[in-house]
């Protein structure tokens, strides 16, 4: 489990947000992506949060 929340250079599909969250919490990026897609079926600000994390999370490097 990583101690920082960053967008990794490896494992990026779109912006690396799900891969960064997966690295931080010790999960598979696939699992985090599936959870995000399932959460999109529920009402809420999922896309806004994803865009905010894309902007706010620093890139690994």
Commentary on this structure:
It is globular, with a radius of gyration of 11 Å. Helix 1 crosses helix 2 (29-39). It is an all-alpha fold. The chain has one domain (1-61). It has helices at residues 17-25, 29-39, 46-56. The two termini are 17 Å apart. The mean pLDDT is 87. The protein is 51% helix and 0% strand.
Round the Cα radius of gyration to an integer and report it: 11 Å
Number of helices: 3
Low-confidence region ranges: none
Inertia-based shape: globular
Estimate what percentage of residues fall within beta strands: under 5%
| Oligomeric category | single chain
Indicate how many domains the architecture comprises.
1
* N/C terminus separation: 17 Å
- Structural class by sheet pairing and helices: mainly alpha
Q: Order of SSEs, N→C? A: HHH
Number of strands: 0
Report the sheet with the most strands, covering strand number, pairing sense and barrel closure: none
Q: Mean of the pLDDT scores?
A: 87
What is the helix content? 40-55%
Quick tags:
61 residues, mainly alpha
SSE layout and pairing:
Elements: H1 17-25, H2 29-39, H3 46-56
Helix pairs in contact: 1-2
Q: Nutshell version of this structure?
A:
With 61 residues, the protein is mainly alpha-helical. It is built from 3 helices and no strands.
